[in-house]
Amino acid sequence: MKGGEHSLPSGMRSFNELSLARPFLFRFVTASAAVLFLLAGFAWVLYSATENTIVSAVPLMLLPALLWWFYHSSSMLHVPLAVDMNHPFMVEDDPIGKSNVMVRLSDGRWVDLGHGRVRLAQDDLLGGCNLVRDNEDYTFLGHFSNRDSANRGLRKQVVLLNQALALRDAVNGEEDTIEQAREREGMDTGLLDRSWMEEQESINVEPEGLMSKLRGE
After folding, report:
1. Is the pLDDT reported for residue 5 higher than 80?
2. Which pairs count as long-range contacts for 119-128, CB under 8 Å and 24+ apart, including other chains?
3. Which residue from 217, 82, 207, 74 is spatially nearest to 151, judged by alpha carbons?
4. Is residue 94 pLDDT above 90, yes or no?
5. At what angle do helices 178-185 and 152-171 cross, to 10 degrees?
6. 64 burial level (CB within 10 Å; 0-12, 13-18, 19+)
7. Which of 105, 94, 110, 93 is nearest to 13 (CA)?
8. For position 134, what pLDDT does the model report?
9. Which residues are CB-contacts of 216 (< 8 A; sequence separation ≥ 6)?
10. What is the helix (H) or strand (E) element at residue 145, kind and residue range?
11. What are the tens digits of pLDDT across the range 185-206?
12. Which pLDDT value is given to residue 82?
């Protein structure tokens, strides 16, 4: 997909700036605190056994590297999705106009996702995976990530992209529904295979509740 900007247009907000993303950040902070507690306990045990300050400090010296790894390996802290003020992810009241959804590609460009659902496709030439339209031609949208298309975190991100697209279509009065989108996502979700930091029954964006509001139920 050509075009795109390295910064978001005015009025667009990335997913991780939204209130919907706060539980994932809270989960990361909670996990980090637990790791700190465990390492501190291990350091105390080492000091009690060796009375060597340097040796006992080794576990705590590992803390920055572990936190860095936890942060960068958590897919829900780095969702390459942005929505505007009319999207149900951002606003609870009735939208005042058309809604747009954008995605950030691997080169940092933000591009409009356009019409139709998306999925991942392995890129055998560049490595990693591409984002393609979920149609008969698998229309190429752009290089999505340097990770393999089977990566669980990437699949969760694509599920969220398609939920955002379904809600956008509902706001814009288009036919497709989130239920139909989920049927197409069946092979891509990986939604039940979660890391210990992200265990839950579903991605916590409550799309059914948002859809009910849009339908006036």
Report:
1. no
2. 119/158, 119/184, 119/185, 119/188, 120/144, 120/149, 120/154, 120/155, 120/158, 120/188, 121/149, 122/148, 122/149
3. 74
4. no
5. 160
6. exposed
7. 110
8. 93
9. none
10. strand 140-145
11. 554 444 333 333 444 334 555 5
12. 95
Q: Is the pLDDT of residue 177 over 90?
A: no
- Cα Dmax for the chain: 69
The tokens describing 95, both together, are 């939208």
Cα 126 from chain centroid (whole Å): 23
| Contact (CB, 8 A) for 18 and 89 | yes
Residue with tokens 């009065």: 173
Contacts of 35 (CB under 8 A, 6+ apart): 63, 66, 67, 70
Asked whether 81 and 101 are in contact (CB, 8 A), the reply is: yes
Contact 152, 138 (CB under 8 A): no
Inter-CA distances, 79 with 14, 43, 115, 158, Å: 8, 35, 20, 9
